[in-house]
Specification:
Number of strands: 16
Shape: globular
Radius of gyration: 19 Å
Distance between the termini: 36 Å
Bound molecules: ligand ERO
Number of helices: 9
Helix content: 25-40%
């Protein structure tokens, strides 16, 4: 009889380390997905989500763009589009929630920040020091009319990061939410900028900006804002997300973690992101469609994949994508 104990679910761990903390489950919500209201943040706390990550916040609360601004359909279950327009309750609300959430749930609370100007970003980051475990600074919101995605402007990104890392009070770990890149020279240029700073993590990727989904029966776009243009999510973006995780992991110094986000519906999707080099993985569209029970399901699926492959922990396969 074999002496080796077969892997069972209990012996398989999805623990990951980020911002110097052990996180029980390396899968959590993407900023923007069911994380805007007090109730939604508590739901994340009560769920198997490894972290509670807030909706991107601005200085003042915002109503966001006119409805309908989100679309998903059984006709095309592989894609979603949103143009929420940064609807949020303002940074003070998300800062205050930190005390409540930390008292009730034993998991990190990360606040996503998306100020409408450099000055707003600097002020919000200053004010949020000590009110959360980390800040995910969003460089990639595609849906605010008149505001370009800063992550596509390399000089503006360099300038913003210079100013952020000159904030004297800065002691809360800082991550960046990146737009998708498609050209290898852009990965080189952006990685050179990011490597200059003590950034804790980057999250790849935000939705694919300014996509257009058309309802051919109605002969109309499926959402109202910006004549139908919005951020594309869902399974359709997974190859772009994986490429961004892979390309940044190859270029960034090892102290900077890469979090995968994009096209995660199943345990296999998480497995692929980690194989590409992700430290952890976020769920966006699928969380909106399925609700917070998706975390438990995806974890179970991932553990079953790991059991079959004989892996006990994420490091056993993280970043180990093989060449053909
Ligand atoms: O419209 C939004 O609020 C929004 N949608 C996205 O797909 N990504 C974002 O980063 C974002 C706002 C910050």
């Amino acid at each position: 009889m074999s002496q080796t104990k077969p892997n069972d679910e209990q012996s398989i761990s999805l623990v990951t380390e980020l911002i110097g903390l052990p996180i029980e489950n390396a899968i959590w919500n993407a900023a923007g997905a069911l994380c805007t209201t007090e109730k939604e943040l508590h739901n994340l706390g009560q769920s198997q989500s490894g972290v509670i990550l807030s909706k991107s916040c601005t200085l003042d609360p915002r109503e966001g763009n006119p409805l309908p601004r989100y679309w998903c359909s059984e006709r095309a279950p592989f894609m979603t589009i949103n143009s929420t327009g940064l609807a949020n309750q303002g940074y003070k609300f998300y800062g205050k929630m930190g005390y409540q959430l930390s008292a009730e749930y034993d998991k990190p609370y990360i606040i996503s920040v998306s100020g409408l100007s450099i000055e707003d970003n600097l002020n919000i980051i200053k004010e949020l020091q000590g009110k959360c475990h980390a800040i995910e600074l969003n460089l990639s919101c595609p849906n605010v009319i008149g505001k370009p995605q800063i992550g596509y402007d390399f000089d503006a990104t360099q300038d913003l990061l210079n100013q952020v890392f000159s904030i004297p009070e800065l002691n809360t770990p800082l991550g960046l939410k990146m737009p998708p890149y498609f050209d290898l020279t852009h990965f080189d240029q952006m990685a050179d900028i990011i490597n200059q700073f003590p950034i804790s993590f980057i999250t790849c990727i935000n939705s694919l900006g300014n996509g257009l989904i058309i309802d051919p029966i109605e002969e109309k776009a499926v959402i109202k804002p910006k004549n139908g243009l919005g951020g594309i999510g869902g399974s359709i973006v997974k190859p772009i997300a994986l490429s961004n995780v892979y390309n940044f992991r190859k270029r960034l110094n090892s102290k900077i973690d890469v979090i995968g986000c994009g096209g995660v519906r199943t345990g296999w999707d998480v497995f692929e992101h980690i194989l590409a080099g992700a430290t952890a993985v976020q769920v966006g569209s699928q969380l909106v469609e399925e609700g917070t029970s998706c975390f438990e399901r995806i974890q179970k699926e991932l553990k079953e994949i790991m059991r079959i492959k004989g892996y006990l922990k994420l490091e056993d396969f993280r970043g180990k994508l093989q060449s053909m």
